[in-house]
Amino acid sequence: MTTPNGPSSPTDGRVGEVVRASTTEFETGCYELYQSPPLGALVVCGEETPIFGVVADSLTESMDPTRPPAPRGAGMASEREVYDDNPQLSRLLSTRFTSLAVGHMSGSDIRWRLAPNPARILSFVRICDDDETRDFSAEVGFLPRLLDARVGSPDEFVAAYLRRCAAVHSDPESFVIRAGKEMAGMLPGQLRRVSAILRTATS
Amino acid sequence: MPLDLDTTATQIDRMAVHIAGRRDDREAALRAAVAVLEALDKDTYEERRAAFAESQNRATVRFLQDPVSSFAPTAIPTDLTVAAIDGSHIDIDRHLAARCFLINIGVCKLTYGAAPDADLRSAPRLYASDDELVIRDDIGERSERIDGTILGALRHVEELSAAADVLEALPGDRPAVMLVDGPMTVAGLGGRVFPDFVLRALVTEGFAGAMERFRLVSANWLAAEGRTLAVAGYTSLPGHDEVVRALSLALPDEHPHQAESATDSVLDREVFGRLLPPGHRSALFASTGHPLESYQQGHTTVNFYLNTGDEIGRVELPAWAADEPGAVDLLHATLLDQCRRGGGYPTVLIEAHEQAVVNGRDRRTFVELVESALADRGVATRTSEKNISKTVRRI
Asked: What is the C-alpha to C-alpha distance for residues B158 and B103, in angstroms, rounded to an integer?
């Protein structure tokens, strides 16, 4: 297991900071507009007790709710041109994403359960690298809880999480089958739903 | 009791009837003003203006170009920096437990071209010490409290100073335009007699000091790279009538008061709204003989009106800038482009304002912060009974 924020540069993969946190989820304000991690990505925040989260939803909107964006691109050839022509947009819009807490570090051990306390506000948030993702996805027992989340589209982000995890395993198919079996066992009567999630994860 | 809207609405209706009834008179006055301006001979006018200014010791308008000429915009540079400063303040509140005021300066810097970028920020400053709350004369015998009109003028000076800070920090690798909201000159000090040391502090040290910094940056840019810098104040929906009033001098055979009466209540923007095609600017003109000129260390300003396509705006720039090659053209083209981007008002000024603005909630929080900070340090905070009665409303 690679220790979060350990061997690589402290800013590697860092995408933002926690701006709202509860025991079950944390919201991250991104440093750069539109630079939220992909849906289903595994992220980690905090230094003393790193907390892992799965990206469940992401949002870009005006920083000032009283100033909604207005169309600016009539007559322009590309969307890029709209932003180049209005450089202030990058400072007036913000991208945030919500991660569901799925585990934490206790010393050098991974705990696949909620941390005793929420993430601290302004904790650094970064995308886990392949090694971290592979190590964390050794367990999938927390997935049924994610499917009950009232954030985003749970079936979609769980499928996206499985797809991303499978990609870093040496045998992706075996990983998905194992995950599917575990989920089916924990979600009695929801076999069709689990099958649909797995189909999305492997499509 | 709340406002009696029935009575108020009746009074508003009477006002609207009165205004509508004067529409024909206003149209006639506007046409008269346009006709006089169109017929004005610049040289003859200048002779009469100079004589009038000397004999009457009054401010007059000097046209630097043919008064009815209009100028089409030139192309805007691809690589360009456009910046703006705006300010807002929380005035001294005698109901507040501490005597203090706050000035918040908003900055917007937009970079267009190969590497588009934006810098938006604000800088609040609390003025609370004895020295910060008054303007003193050189020997400390006399002082004037900073509030009301003087605070407004101080805020303007702080805006100009912040503009100079921004310009001095620019790399100068591309042309730049700096805008401030409203006039460049310190407004509001003309209507009342202020002590000499107050005018020296605000106009000579403040306004003229910032203008000199602008001039130095501009001169350095021109000398080093041939880059153009334009600095200006932009006023939306200007209420000025100095050009219209000047027209009385163009009618020597008529009593000046009669001419003034004929064009009474006509505004400059209405006249130039008839004369300027969309996108065009007016001739440059200067208001000379203003009472504060003697404090300005030679840093006078010149003006032009601009038809942005949505309205007639007023632009005020340093007099020296009018002589620099390309500065007026750069300003003209940039303002049009900014108004296009901003839906009628310069984007850069909109964003500077958004950075500067102190809204009602901010003001309430400010009061709470002051009271809580004082309470934390054991300072008893006492507000006026009137203020308490507003907060705790009861019957």
From this structure: 8
> What are B144's two structure tokens?
């004037």
pLDDT at A43 over 80: yes
Dihedral, B315, B317, B323, B326 alpha carbons, nearest 10:
-60
Contacts of B347 in chain A (CB under 8 A): 86, 88
Q: State how far the Cα of B16 lies from the Cα of A202, in Å rounded to an integer.
A: 71
Phi, psi values for residue B278, rounded to 5°? -55, 135
Q: Which of A64, A70, A88 sits opposite B110 (nearest CB)?
A: A88
* Degrees to nearest 5, angle at CA B294 with B240 and B151: 65
A-B CB pairs within 8 A amount to: 31
In DSSP terms, B125 is beta-bridged to B103
Q: Which two tokens stand for residue A82?
A: 């709209």
Q: Is residue A153 part of a domain?
A: yes
For the whole model, what pTM was predicted?
A: 0.85
Cα→Cα distances B48→A44, B221, B251, B261, B263, Å: 78, 39, 10, 19, 19
- CA atoms of A32 and A54, how far apart (whole Å): 20
Q: Which domain holds residue A164?
A: 14-202
The answer to the question of residue A70 being in a domain is: yes
Between CA B95 and CA B322 the distance in angstroms is 47
Q: Residue holding tokens 């900055």?
A: B107
Residue in A64, A70, A88 nearest the CB of B118: A88
pLDDT tens, residue by residue, B325-341: 899 999 999 999 999 99
Residue B67 three-state SS: coil
Q: Min CA distance, A131 vs chain B (Å)?
A: 36
Asked if A92 and B351 come within 8 Å (Cβ–Cβ), the reply is yes
Closest CA to A165 of A98, A82, A76, A102: A102
Contacts of B114 (CB under 8 A, 6+ apart): B78, B79
- As for how many domains chain A has, the answer is 1
The neighbour count for residue A110, using CB atoms within 10 Å, is 17
Angle, to 10 degrees, between the axis of helix A154-168 and the axis of helix A172-186? Answer: 140
C-beta of residue B253 within 8 angstroms of C-beta of residue B208: no
Residue contact A87–B341, C-beta within 8 A: no
User: Cα distance from A185 to chain B (closest Cα, Å)?
Assistant: 53
Q: Is residue A9 in a domain?
A: no
A64 falls within a domain? yes
Nearest CA to B169 among B119, B123, B122? B119
pLDDT tens track for A60-89: 999 998 899 988 888 899 999 999 999 999
